[in-house]
Amino acid sequence: DAATLEKPAADLLLLPDTFTNHLAPEAGHAARAVLADAGLTTALPEGPVCCGLTYVSTGQLDRARTVMRRTLDVLEPALDAGLPVTVLEPPCAAALRTDLPELLPDDPRAARLAAATRTFAATLEELAPDWRPPRVDRPVVGQTHCHQHAVLGDAPERRLREAAGLTGDLSGGCCGLAGNFGFEKGHYEVSVSCAEEQLLPAVREAPADAEILADGYSCRTQLDQLGGHRSRHLAEVLADHLPPRRR
Questions:
Q1: Are residues 84 and 177 in the same domain?
Q2: Predicted TM-score (pTM) of this structure
Q3: 93, 110 in Cβ contact below 8 A?
Q4: Contact, 122 vs 84, CB < 8 A?
Q5: Which positions fall inside the Cysteine-rich domain (predicted)?
Q6: pLDDT tens digits for range 145-183
Q7: Does residue 190 contact residue 153 with C-beta atoms inside 8 Å?
Q8: CA-CA distance, 16 to 39, in Å (whole number)?
Q9: Are residues 238 and 202 in the same domain?
Q10: pLDDT digits (tens, 9 = 90+) for 9-30
Q11: I need a surface site. Which of 10, 14, 100, 133 has the fewest CB within 10 A?
């Protein structure tokens, strides 16, 4: 079980973003297994949290500020304990890193959470530098999330894939779903065109044994709904290749 925030043995707080918590819990369970294999103890928040990006991207900035303040209230014990905050969903990590301090410049907790935010791969690289991932040794194809490109960078993810023997590059374009954009009336054709620019052709041309990776839930949804391709978070792929005693 995850440690409570009061226990100093926790190495990090794993943030259950809305997508992971309600739509893709398998990614969260996989991340905890991999982090545990790396010798890291995870804490979980004691209440619901949300980065507020849904409201930011639809122009509901006052609502976004309310949601962000509520998240800061929940995470304040973790911030006071100096815990890194690991976020599995790239757009949520990007929102906490940039949108949060921009929208709440007068709340010092916002800057603290922005500085504490880490991606899954960055967490492993920083907190468990001597850990070696299980070998997967397969070609890889898929999507690096746009927010990862624009805000976070993907160097730790590239190094983690290389260490696991996942060879090849992920697509650099946009999957086209873009949060709620692809679901809105009048956007379908543009959404599909974006996916057909790089992502879907790359997946169709990939070897049969290729792992299809997409850390973003929107990207995984687009791959599934447009092409019937099952893609996974990097944490899921690594967890599947842990020896049984280490899962």
A1: no
A2: 0.90
A3: no
A4: no
A5: 21-95
A6: 888 888 888 999 999 999 999 999 898 778 888 777 777
A7: no
A8: 20
A9: yes
A10: 789 999 999 999 999 999 999 9
A11: 10
